[in-house]
Amino acid sequence: MRRGKCAKKEVYIEIIRIIAIILVIFNHTDGYFLYYSNTDNPLTWWFSFTGSVLCRSNVPLFIMITGALLLGKEESIRELYKKRVCRIGAVLVIFSFFYYVISVFRNPEEAFSFQNFLKGLLNGSIQESFWYLYLYLGLLLMLPLLRKMAASCNNDEFKYLLALQFVMGTGAGVFSFVTGVEISSNLYVLNIYVFYLLAGYYLGRRIDMDRISKSWILCTFGLNVLCLFGTYAAVRLGCHREGGYNPELLNLLTPLMTLAIFFDIRWLCWKYSVPKKFEKLICEAGGCVFGIYLLEQLARIQLLPVYLYLSENTVGILACSCYVIGSFLLAWLYTEVLKRVPLLGRLL
Predict the structure, then answer these.
(1) Fewer CB within 10 Å, N or C, the chain?
(2) Average pLDDT, whole number, for the chain?
(3) What Rg do the C-alpha atoms of the chain give, in angstroms?
């Protein structure tokens, strides 16, 4: 989720960041799963279901951005630790402590304990959404090795990687769901997040956009539509089989959808220029996404009364949409303020 360059050729990175963080916030609201699993209103159902499917791509998109930006860099292990590992580690400690203090204040029966804070920090239980920071730290620790892997692979080998994931990962999952026959996971052992990291590097740095025609974009856009309706079919069938909705089925086609979204946005930003007045705003918002991620929980807590009021007096779709956008804007405002604080601003 680190800040990207505001150069014109990198605007697509910032747009993907903004989309991904909005999907993260939506994932933390009632719009994700709860609405479509508890309504008879077709409009509410499709709003919640579509958002729930799309928001499964939020973290994968962030990891693909990391792959596009970092796998091609040359830096020593010392530089990696100094510039990246220490920064994320400091952010994790500072903001975990921040949310631990909030938790103590919101729960008077919970006494402050440094020992409890330390235990929560180590096991990642203080702030649930911070699981991504632990994951990101793990990817950073492996970055020197993954860089060598990325640099040594030619484009045909990257295509093989994508094909392997689609067949042995996504394809095997679809086969198991349809037939009920489980395929041994030992047949395909590549970590899904490492896959997204390498795929982001390939789609973001290795593909010559001059050679991509509109027909390819129409195909990838159509792939997204197929993924949406394919997931719809799986969710409906799963509900019929199990007597209830299974949120795990939302992930069935996520790799295909995520790569198509990333590729389409890159192509659109390469093909069509973003107006200057919007480009500056996009880059400013994209540069604050890391802070928004860290502070959206605080924003949602503060805007919860507004959401509850709108839920009681309007329709759920409007209430949820206002809650998501309001949380995004409030967390953005907090980030802009904190970025002007010495030392803390450098972390964001």
Answers:
(1) N
(2) 93
(3) 21
What digits encode the pLDDT tens for the residues 12-47?
999 999 999 999 999 999 999 989 988 889 999 999
3-state secondary structure the chain: CCCCCCCHHHHHHHHHHHHHHHHHHHHCCCCCCCCCCCCCCHHHHHHHHHHHHHHHHHHHHHHHHHHHHHCCCCCCHHHHHHHHHHHHHHHHHHHHHHHHHHHHHHCCCCCCCHHHHHHHHHHCCCCHHHHHHHHHHHHHHHHHHHHHHHHHCCHHHHHHHHHHHHHHHHHHHHHHHHHCCCCCHHHCCCCHHHHHHHHHHHHHHHCCHHHCCHHHHHHHHHHHHHHHHHHHHHHHHHHHHHCCCCHHHHHCCHHHHHHHHHHHHHHHHHHCCCCHHHHHHHHHHHCCHHHHHHHHHHHHHHHHHHHHHHHHHCCHHHHHHHHHHHHHHHHHHHHHHHCCCCCHHHHC
Give the type of residue at 258: T
Structure tokens given for 182: 């489980």
Contacts of 10 (CB under 8 A, 6+ apart): 4
pLDDT band at 10 (very low <50, low <70, confident <90, very high): confident
Contact 87, 136 (CB under 8 A): no
- pLDDT digit string, tens, across residues 133-190: 999 999 999 999 999 999 999 999 999 999 999 999 999 999 999 999 999 988 888 9
pLDDT at 213: 86
- Tens of pLDDT, residues 309-338: 999 999 999 999 999 999 999 999 999 999
